[in-house]
Amino acid sequence: MIKKILCLFLVSIAVISCKKEKETLNKTAVKTHQISEDETTETVYKDYTTAPVDFLDEKYKIDGLDFPGISPPYPAYHFYDENLGQFNVNYVGKSRLIRYYWDTDNSDGFFAHFRPENPAEEDPKLMKKQANDIIKKSLNDYYFVVEFSPKEALTRSKDGFLQSKKDAYTYFYVYENNKWIFLKRLFTSDIQKEGIELFTELLLPHKLKDIKPIAEEFQGKFKAEADGEYTNDGQGHTTYYFTITKNKIDLKYEAFRGDFVCEGEYKGIQNGTILELYYDREDDRCLKLDPTYLIKKEDDNFFIKGIGGEGTINEWIKMDKE
What we know:
The structure is a single chain. The chain is α+β, with helices and mostly antiparallel strands. It has helices at 2-28, 96-101, 124-137, 195-208; strands at residues 76-81, 85-93, 142-150, 154-156, 162-164, 169-176, 179-187, 220-231, 234-244, 249-256, 264-271, 274-279, 293-298, 301-305, 317-321. The chain has two domains: 2-208, no CATH class; 216-321. It is built from four helices and 15 strands. An eight-stranded antiparallel barrel has the order 8-9-10-11-12-13-14-15. Strands 1-2-3-6-7 form a five-stranded antiparallel β-sheet. It has a two-stranded antiparallel sheet with strand order 4-5.
């Protein structure tokens, strides 16, 4: 019931934002070239592989943070200018823990502070302010991901709402080292995913594209075992087999009523004394911004975190090296 109330509230915020946008658009409609919905002339785009503006400029934040009506929720702000186009700046948590903070299911998260019995008592301005204060205190915990639709990709429907043309492109950027990095250009009509799922698909290849060769100390063949959750049929058990070479990690497994395992190729990023393993195949269920597994070496012993069920997934479990 609580989740339904929160979802209705988020939708109401989105509706209010849309109304405000329509009012703004109507004021500038006279200045904007009107294009028929049936027009099929191919749009000529400028080169937007370089970000056209600094999307983090304070002048673009005049409406404050909002929450797109997408699950799981995340903070974002929207801006439109008839001479530029429209864009969303999305704050995507770098870790699962940060992303979960904004989930409406989290009883200790952000929305836990906004749960009056009467949804009419909600204060959108207070919610925006508190979200903004939280983001400002922890900017390093987020990816800043932009979805940009240039002005030539946009037109208006008969009722005055802004919409994408049939051949429109959406451009994606991420902010790193004090500059905007171009991620990808996609046909807007071809974008099937949204929110965190879409951002994960865009950010993960970028994160893994320039990785260094895996250190020799982590190379070799390893085996690890973990028990799964108890079920009516008993407790499951899974054995993991990792083959780690200079530029590739391969995982195979054997399971007896074991937990779901993303078998196949992984890539490794060494972070200090920890080797982070990221799934690098096509199964969408397995794609994560966080490492799926962590491997560390202590003296001559190797340990892994992330295997098994809830009872072991956060524990360091000893690995056997062949």
